[in-house]
Amino acid sequence: MQADSLSKRRFFVVCLVVCGAMLTWSHDAKALRIGDSHELGSLWPGIQHKTDDQNKILYVNHLITLARDTVEISHGEVYSRSNNGFKYLPASDRAINGNGRAIRLGAGGGLYTYLFATYSGYGTEIWYVGNLHGIIMIPLIATGHHLSGWTLLGPGGVGVPDGGLTVALLGVALAVLALTRRFLMR
After folding, report:
1. Pick from 82-91, 101-110, 145-154: least confident
2. Which of 137, 143, 153 has the alpha carbon at shortest distance from 59?
3. Are β-strands 30-31 and 134-137 bridged in parallel, bridged antiparallel, or unpaired?
4. What is the pLDDT of residue 25?
5. Residue burial 38-64, b: 16+ Cβ < 10 Å; e: rest
6. Among 29-33, 39-43, 130-134, 154-158, which stretch is predicted with the lowest mean pLDDT?
7. Nearest to residue 128, comparing CAs of 139, 112, 106, 142?
8. Which residue pairs from 144-149 have beta carbons closer than 8 angstroms and sit at least 24 positions apart in sequence?
9. Beta strands 114-119; 141-142: pairing state
10. With contact defined as beta carbons under 8 Å apart, do 51 and 97 qualify?
C-alpha cells in the first residue's frame, strides 16, 4: 500500500512538471527592432501625410506591392521597402490603434499582419507580425524621436483566435485527467 501511494505521488509530480513546462513555452515575448528580419519597410511623411486608419491601410497596402530594397514616392509619401523576404503579404483592411511599447497580439498568429509604428519627427516603421503571437515590444525611440503611437493592421476576414498550443494544452489536460482516473480507480 505504501509503494502504491508513492507511485501515485510521483505520477502527479511528473504531470505537474510536464504541464508547467508547456505553460512556460506558451508565453512568447519578442522585441522588434528597426532593421530586423520582421521589418517590412518605412514611410517618411511627405506633404500629404494623413494619419487616419484608411490612409494607414493605403500606405501599408502600397508598401507590400513594392519590390524588395526599393524606394518610391507615391501618394505624396516616400516609401522604403526593406530587403526582407516574406512568404505571403496579404492586403490589410482593418486596424486597431494604441500607444506604449508593449503590444499584445493574442494567442494565435493571423489576427494582425502588420504593425505601423509612428515616431514624432521621424516617420513610420512597419513590421510584418503575421507570424508572431503573445506580447511584442517595439522601440520607444527611433533615431532620437519618440514613439507617438501604433496601429495593428489585419487581413480581411476573421482571424483565428487561438493557435495550436491551446489545443495541445487541452489534449494534455484531458490525458492527465484520464490517467489520473485510471490510477485512482485501481
Report:
1. 101-110
2. 153
3. parallel
4. 47
5. bbbbbbebeeebeeebeebbbbbbbbb
6. 154-158
7. 112
8. 145/119, 145/120, 145/121, 146/119, 146/120, 147/99, 147/101, 147/117, 147/118, 147/119, 148/99, 148/118, 148/119, 148/120, 149/97, 149/98, 149/99, 149/117, 149/118
9. unpaired
10. no
Q: What percent of the chain has pLDDT over 90?
A: 34
* Residue bearing cell 519618440: 146
**CB contact set of 86 (below 8 Å; sequence gap of 6+):** 40, 128
- By residue count, the chain amounts to 186
Three cell numbers, residue 37: 528580419
All three cell numbers of 19: 504541464
Using the Cα atoms of residue 90, residue 35, residue 152 and residue 53 in order, give the sign of their dihedral: negative
- Cell numbers placing 77: 509619401
